Amino acid sequence: MINTALRRSFDVYYRDAERTARMDKLNAQFVHSDDLVFDIGAHVGDRTASFRRLGAKVVALEPQPRVFRALRLLYAGDTSVVLRRAAVGAFCGTLDLHVNSRNPTVSTLSKDLQMAAKRSAEWQNQIWDTSVEVDVTTLDQLIADHGRPSFIKIDVEGYEAEALKGLTASVPALSFEFTTLQRKVALTCLDQLCELDQWKFNVSLGEDHALRFDDWITRPAMAQYIMSLPASANSGDVYARLV
Questions:
Q1: Domains of the chain with CATH codes
Q2: Cα–Cα distance measured from residue 65 to residue 130, given in angstroms and rounded to the nearest whole number
Q3: How many CB atoms lie within 10 A of CB 79?
Q4: Closest by CA position to 30, among listed 59, 49, 56, 61
């Protein structure tokens, strides 16, 4: 049986037809039929669904046991989706996942996120009330196991920089989530990518699912943009593509 928190996630991520159309339009700029895509932090699989509508093959990772069971119910019969109950980090192994039972979308491996939340009025109601040990793999290992993807989507609640530490081979394009609560994590991600290769960047805020800039921008310009955002912007996704 799906609990109340998961029902809320399904309502948010599956019942808004306009959001779905925006998401597909955005993803279509990076994903095409028969492409391989990694969905890191799949949650209830709305991005996986979008990638599949575009004809891509998907490797979807979600570490939360309860959420993963829901994901498996949705996609277990789809031979073009590989499901793995695991997180992504800098090294393979195991780590404690801190679970927010009332709001599983912000369950995290990051203790820094939890500390930052305690200092933020907007996050005061977020409580990580339990933890579970989860398997951790790396993006490099996923590439070794499944092949080089055309696109990687990373949404791991403050652990994005650790996830990118495990990537040493460039891919054509990727996205990572950021929050105004932890802007320095986003800046670290930008630096890590630029150490790896040459990229241009764009951004989508909140649930807009639309790129903000007509012309893709440099790392310094993206960093300046992120630092200039008001706290109320809350979150978004930075998109990176190889130059």
A1: 4-242 (3.40.50.150)
A2: 12
A3: 8
A4: 56
